[in-house]
Amino acid sequence: MAKPRKPGGPKQKLSPGARKRKEERDLKYALTDRRTKMKAENQRKRNKAKKNGVNIKGKDYDHEDGKFESVKRNRGNDGNGTKKEGKKIKK
Fold it and tell me: What is the SS3 assignment for 20?
């Protein structure tokens, strides 16, 4: 019988070199001005909501809609998927 997966464990099976390169890419992206501002805004919103007694367990702040949504809905781009997210649609 296989061992149960550890929560928060690796999600992708990468070679050690690829894992290191991905870690560097992810960190570089996470430290951009835009991401830093979004994380700070998220922390402010979460702390304020907790202080006001709002149950935000299992929810993420959606910067586009300006409200807390389930993780599934927020990362799935409100049911539209993420394939075309951020791209301008040509008419």
Answer: helix
List the domain boundaries for the chain.
18-75
pTM above 0.90, yes or no: no
From CA 61, how far away is CA 90, in angstroms rounded?
29
The single residue listed with the structure tokens 């300006």 is 66
What distance in Å separates the CA atoms of residue 45 and residue 56, rounded to the nearest whole number?
10
How far apart CA 7 and CA 48 sit, in angstroms, is: 28
Mean pLDDT of 15-32: 94
Contact 61, 42 (CB under 8 A): yes
Residue type, 17: G
pLDDT of the residue at 19: 92
Phi, psi of 15 (to 5 degrees): -70, 160
